């Protein structure tokens, strides 16, 4: 069986790579029990460093919408060139809450 593919960066997610589930609609905004996608942990962290829970629920609740965000698109183009198990601290400042 092949490794699952990250829907954001398009790289495989090997079993030993840091990974996490992302709720497409944040739990705080009614997404508990809703659809989730498996992502590289670094990809997941970049989503939450970039967007607020309200923005995620309102405008960025599909992988396609997330990939269309300018900062996220730039990040995913960069990280797609890295090996599947690549992990590092997310660059840039945390978003304002």
Topology, pairings included?
Blueprint lengths: L18 E5 L12 E5 H10 L2 H6 L4 H6 L1 H10 L18
Antiparallel strand pairs: 1-2
Distance between the termini: 41 Å
Structural class: alpha+beta
For the CA atoms, what is the radius of gyration? 13 Å
Largest sheet: 2 strands, antiparallel
Strand coverage percent:
5-15%
- The beta-strand count equals 2
Which bin fits the share of residues in helices?
A: 25-40%
Estimate the global geometry from the Cα principal axes: globular
Strand order of the largest sheet: 1-2
Summarize, please.
This protein is α+β, with helices and mostly antiparallel strands.
Description:
- One of its GO terms (molecular function) is endonuclease activity.
- Keywords: Endonuclease, Hydrolase, Nuclease.
- By secondary structure, this protein is α+β, with helices and mostly antiparallel strands.
- It has a domain at 19-79.
- It has 4 helices and 2 strands, in the order E-E-H-H-H-H.
- The chain has helices at 41-50, 53-58, 63-68, 70-79, and strands at residues 19-23, 36-40.
- The protein has a two-stranded antiparallel sheet with strand order 1-2.
- The radius of gyration is 13 Å and the shape is globular.
């Amino acid at each position: 069986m092949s490794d699952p593919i990250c829907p954001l960066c398009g790289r495989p997610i090997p079993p030993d790579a840091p990974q996490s589930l992302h709720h497409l609609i944040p739990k705080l905004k009614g997404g508990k029990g809703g659809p989730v996608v498996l992502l590289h942990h670094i990809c997941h962290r970049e989503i939450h460093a970039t967007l607020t829970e309200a923005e995620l629920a309102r405008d960025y609740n599909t992988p396609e919408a997330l990939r269309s965000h300018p900062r996220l698109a730039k990040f995913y183009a960069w990280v797609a060139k890295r090996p599947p198990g690549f992990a590092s601290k997310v660059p840039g400042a945390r978003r304002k809450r």
